[in-house]
Amino acid sequence: MIEPRLKIATCSLAGCFGCHMSLLDLDERLFDLAERVELDRSPLTDIKELGECDVGLVEGGVCNAENVHTLIEFRARCKILVAIGACALNGGVPAMRNQYDLKECLEESYVRGMGLVNAQIPSDPEIPLLLNKVHPIHEVVKIDYSLPGCPPSADTIWTFINELLSGQAIALSYRQIHYD
Amino acid sequence: MSGEPSFTLDGQQIPFQEGQTVMQAALEAGVYIPHLCFNPEFTPHGSCRVCLVKVNNRMQAACTTPAAGGQTVQSETEELREIRRGILQMLFVEGNHVCPACEKSGACQLQAVAYYVGMLAPHFKHFYPRRPVDASHPDAVIDFNRCIMCELCVRASRDVDGKNIFAVEGRGIQAHLVVNTPSGQLGATGFSLHDKAAQVCPTGSILTKHRGYDIPIGQRLYDRKPINVVGDVAQLPDSQGGRRHD
Description:
With 180 residues, chain A is an alpha/beta fold.
């Protein structure tokens, strides 16, 4: 009998897709992975609607209303939610704007930025509204596992996924844990 | 038994000399107890509490507790590791520690101790305080975002350099590091890279300019080996990836 493959979803919120690049760095190990898991909503599948999943991997912090919506949906539909990378864990580089007011940030880019014509702060209703501050995802939903790194290396992700899928306790080696 | 007094640390006999603290004796015996505000060259400060141990079943800071014959000291227990993790997490959320954007990353004692105690995530709500960066000095920069108030620069400048360049101002959560000049700028002081104060910062708060990435990320002090094996960045010479100028 063929065992049903576990469903995994991934998303990048306020991140740079670096953690997804690290996931792709699994290289030929991706073939092994594809035999054991099925990708649901993910930038790699372009599925728009998130289904019921076993594991959700979340890259990036929360910087706008859409991020909050996506994150809450991931929490509701994924049995295990994993924060991947510095931005998801502590806001990372996007959270460096937290030292300034949102107005100051927007004006710096869109009003006082160099070479602007008809300078104005974008207000198209299709653009998700920015939050006053960027938040790590644990400040919005409960997180089951945290995987630090900017990004975590493919080896770290591989060890983590393997141990998680086989039901072992996660044990990462010293060199697999770093914050940079 | 010989006449030399000793105590047990996690079951191991640690000899000591009269007047030594638990931390000093452990260090001399080659046993690592995690610490941040402690530096063997300075009078213990006892403020960061990372070196918390159980001495005869009471929580004490190893750096300020005098060693005494027959003491039973516990350090590497899950209970203590959890408390230390909590202290590290609080230190991380209280400042702005953006490791990916910090040129000290990989050779930072704060980071290394956090690795050692197994901190994966900051857990608490971040403060994201608004703190300045002072780049007014030609050779050094102070990034107050990364200061953990260990006061090692204060002690080094006052007690070793005799310059009294740094001080702590305010109380409780308002306490913060200041530069002792009317403008508050490091550039207006007699600070020099040869000062002891330039070599003791356990974080990326006090940095030497123009050489941030001389050693690439991935090849730094704590990138391959943990701090209990490598030792403190302030105690190692430049040539070994440390901060000490010999």
